[in-house]
Design brief:
- Among the domains are: 81 residues, Gyrase A, domain 2 (2-Layer Sandwich), CATH 3.30.1360; 90 residues, no CATH class.
- 54% of the residues lie in helices and 10% in strands.
- It contains 21 helices and 13 strands.
- Strand 2 and strand 3 form a beta hairpin.
- It is flat, with a radius of gyration of 29 Å.
- 42% of the residues are buried.
- The structure holds arginine.
């Protein structure tokens, strides 16, 4: 139930302001003693030419309030509303009970499409913890948008273009063998590349350039080998995506746009936007305090930005997106500002719908990530260690659990995702093994545990019958706080979507779990008189559903037992 709206509706006539505007003016007071909602009368003072406290008391005397308003108080220029906890509990819990795991979902995005470019890995490289955030953040934004009714297109914009692939092909032709690559996967490709950089002489360098040219020109042998390198990389990363339960609708990467850059470049030329400057073709952006956006090398070859431009046009044409999000670290802030600006200057108003969602850098136990110095942690290793640890704990605490392996996965993966999505996205994160694998305090397993607690209460109890619930039994502080927390969920989801900030949901999960635990320790459930027990069971069921939904939006499973 939307209390704010109903209060605004009641005030509408006497205040002489439309309910919609009133709703925006109604505040949630900072202190409980000031009520559950407050309406400041200061704005009305100018129109009505009366002092705010006087307006407040006139409104109080003349407006008939909905019956869930227990008391109205005038304080200074404010009208403070106190909601009956019983009515509030009834309204909130009935709504959640009916909606179940759909509570908080909406049709806001109906008929709208959002493209989300995330994870976007590079071919022939192994995923390390630097790729964790784009992957889980992007996946969560995809879940959140779907929940709000949007059509979501998840795109893995593969880094599969560049002269290094010519080198890799050349190295493979000289030193590689098929079985070795099949067996060792991406590692074998990396070894070939490293060896090339160490040992290749002038002749091989020339050959490598020729191989790259062959990829550009669609030479069958080059394309076959190159596609195979791609498959090898994708097969490696598929295990990670499987563990994280992530799927992409498109793997159209940079190479997909090789025949689509020309049209964009032609259009830029036709619009007189392309200039030759310092050995490259660029769009000058001095006016906007940005360095030029480089689009073609002197030999006419496209670069990263050209392919991103082509991709933006392709996506607009193919998906007619309402928004296109790029979940990429903030090091690429300038790149996206430039690309988006070029689209705008080309005269496309939808340039405003291209949104870079930046996030902070990852370091490793206080040091910058560096493959060369060995300061690197691979993503599959993180996930497996988390699962191993979860398995040990389950084995120790609940050796008779049926689906131990599945639970270990859910808990281990849950811990890592929760850890990554807990801080605001723009903050740089320092990866520490003991923090990522921490299962106590504000962590994924702690929230999952609260969910299992709800499940176990419901499993032990007689059948839930919401009609028998005595809502007056939910007037104690712990119950009120838990119910307020449940009530807030739909708004939490909207905030997270608007700010592209799943951490709002992560933190919410932690506080919901905490609130439930407090409720659970303060209140007896089983063995209470029927009405009281049913009311408490109902809160428990609603909490279970909201935790499950909220974790799901983060990409975390909620096991029933652990
Ligand atoms: N592969 C790139 C990298 O690892 C990220 C690509 C992001 N997406 C894009 N459309 N540019 O840095």
């Amino acid at each position: 139930m939307d209390f704010k709206k109903l209060i605004a509706d009641a005030l509408e006539e006497k205040a002489g302001i439309p309910s919609k505007e009133l709703q925006e003016m109604i505040e949630i007071p900072p202190k409980k003693e000031m009520g559950d909602f407050a309406f400041p009368c200061f704005k009305l003072a100018r129109v009505l030419r009366k002092a705010p406290p006087m307006i407040a008391s006139e409104l109080k005397d003349t407006v008939t309030m909905p019956d869930f308003v227990k008391q109205v108080q005038v304080e200074g220029g404010y009208l403070n509303f106190f909601i009956s906890p019983e009515k509030r509990a009834a309204a909130v819990l009935t709504e959640i009970n009916e909606a179940g795991e759909k509570y908080g979902a909406s049709s806001l995005g109906d008929g709208k499409t959002v493209c989300i470019d995330y994870s976007s890995i590079n071919i022939a490289k192994r995923c390390h913890i630097g790729h964790l955030t784009t992957t889980v953040l992007g996946a969560s934004l995809a879940n959140i948008h779907r929940f709000l009714g949007y059509e979501v297109v998840s795109i893995n914009h593969l880094g599969d273009w560049g002269t290094q692939f010519g080198k890799m092909l050349c190295a493979f032709k000289h030193w590689g063998n098929k079985e070795d690559v099949e067996a060792k996967g991406v590692n074998a490709l990396i070894e070939l590349y490293v060896r090339f950089e160490k040992e290749a002489d002038e002749d091989m360098q020339t050959e490598a350039r020729a191989w790259f040219k062959k990829i550009e020109d669609d030479d069958p042998e080059a394309i076959e080998l190159f596609s195979w390198f791609k498959d090898i990389t994708l097969k490696d990363v598929a295990e990670i995506y499987d563990l994280l339960n992530i799927k992409f609708d498109s793997y159209a990467g940079e190479s997909f746009y090789k025949d689509k850059c020309g049209a964009v470049v032609d259009e830029l030329k036709a619009k007189n936007m392309l200039e030759f400057s310092e050995g490259a073709y660029v769009v000058k952006l001095d006016e906007f305090d940005m360095p030029p956006c480089i689009l073609l090398k002197s030999d006419g070859a496209s670069i990263y930005a050209t392919r991103d431009l082509a991709a933006a046009f392709y996506r607009k044409k193919t998906y007619d997106f309402d928004k296109c999000l790029y979940v990429v670290a903030y090091q690429q802030n300038l790149h996206f500002k430039q690309v988006f600006k070029v689209v705008e200057l080309m005269g496309y108003p939808w340039a405003k719908d291209l949104v870079h969602v930046p996030f902070g850098m990852v370091s490793y136990e206080g040091q910058t990530l560096s493959t060369r110095k060995g300061h690197v942690v691979y993503l599959d290793e993180v996930l497996h260690r988390a699962i191993d640890k979860a398995r040990d704990i389950v084995e120790e605490k609940n050796p008779n659990l049926e689906n131990k392996e599945q639970v270990a996965k859910q808990v281990g993966i849950g811990a890592v995702i929760f850890y990554d999505l807990f801080s605001g996205k723009i903050k740089d994160v320092d990866f520490w093994w003991d923090r990522a694998l921490n299962f106590e305090g504000e962590t994924g397993p702690y929230v999952q545990y609260a969910h299992t607690r709800c499940c176990s209460v419901l499993a032990k109890a007689p059948e839930l019958d919401a009609n028998k619930a005595d809502f007056a039994a939910l007037s104690d502080d712990a119950s009120c706080e838990l119910i307020a927390c449940l009530e807030a969920f739909p708004q939490i989801v909207l905030d997270a979507a608007e700010k592209y900030e799943p951490s709002i949901i992560t933190r919410y999960c932690a506080s919901l779990a905490q609130n439930y635990n407090k409720f659970y320790f303060d209140n007896r459930i089983l063995g209470e008189e029927e009405g009281v027990m049913q009311a408490r069971l109902l809160v428990t069921k609603c909490t279970r559903d909201v935790i499950k939904t909220a974790l799901g939006l983060l990409g975390i499973d909620a096991p029933e037992k652990m």
